[in-house]
Amino acid sequence: MNASHLRSLFVFDSGDPVPCSPTDTLIPSSCRLLKVLDLRAAPIQTFPEEISNLRLLRYLSLRDTDIKTIPSSIRKLQDLETLDLKHSQVSELPIEILKLHRLRHLLVYRYEFTSYSRFHSKYGFQALPGIGALQSLQKLCFMDVNHDNTLIMELGKLVQLRRLGIINLRKEDGNRLCSSIEKLINLRALSIVSLVKEEFMDLQSLSSPPPVLQRLYLYGRLEKLPDWIPGLQSLAVIYLKWSRLPNDALKSLQKLPNLVHLELLQAVEGDTLRFEAGGFKGLKQLGIDKFEGLKCIEVEEGAMPRLEKLSIQRCKLLERAPLGIEYLTNLKVLEFFDMPEDSIMTLGPDANIPEVYYTYWRNGEWEVYCIERPGEKEMGSFINHDTLHSRLK
């Protein structure tokens, strides 16, 4: 094809594997003026060398490919602003990446789910010495800090960052990380994953958190909820996973004015989880997962008045549906995942919820059933994994 005037090229996955030999090319040789190249899910295992000759390229996506390495020749792409390697097999980057001074978005990570309760399911890339040279970076995910204090301090130089994700943080690295984060005043999203599920993360020393932080994801144990979190007025999304906080730790979150989504996995200890009147006024989505000692969820009248979706998963000791659930008058979807059926069936007729599902993981797929509205048949039918994914994602 004559593609001499082409500026953008997108390759879409057909859904079927396509044979591709080392001599095949997905990029016409005449595409010298390309600025956008999206090869996501393309049937390639090695980095196409012809990409390095696209000197005007600004956007490059190799997402969902089987590529494992990026060649040093990528340094030729001096105009590159986005490098998307999400869900590829890349775990290391060449040092020449640091010569791409216009780079804004560097996304290198993948998920490997051997079971849906696994702690280490996210893999990023080994941190690069001198990463602070990429002064234009706005998104950096997910960097393995690799127990290197110098690298952690380098993050403080990336003052344009809006999104930062790091993995394998040790407790002793916490103070240095907090020192770097304090300099990132433009940060909107922060994700931190501990080195080991049972090791505490020390994030208390962050005295001046990013003022416009909107999304916070903390994966790992916490001795207490960091004091700076309740003061984040712009915070809209919080994920707390494996934190095992004291039972009353969530009280300090209930006054956050813009919080709309809260996900909790083994987040607090205790047998009762109580949502107090007047708390979580803007919350629309709540997930409660694997609270091992939880026996009772209580919702006081006036709590979570805007809640639209509630998911309860793997709380094996929960004796009944949440007390006071009838006060959640805006609740549209209630989901139970791998929960005792006896507790599900305690859901009273006063809970006027349009969609109620209970789901079990069996034989490598989800079985989804629904409790119909009064007057209709009581139980729904089996729903396969694809249907579940599209309905509940």
TrEMBL record:
Q: Which residues form the Disease resistance R13L4/SHOC-2-like LRR domain?
A: 5-335
In terms of InterPro entries, this protein maps to: LRR_dom_sf, LRR_R13L4/SHOC2-like
Repeat in keyword set: yes
UniProt keywords, alphabetically: Repeat
Q: Which Gene3D superfamilies match?
A: Ribonuclease Inhibitor
The family database entries (SUPFAM superfamilies) matched by this protein are listed as: L domain-like
Protein name per UniProt: Disease resistance R13L4/SHOC-2-like LRR domain-containing protein
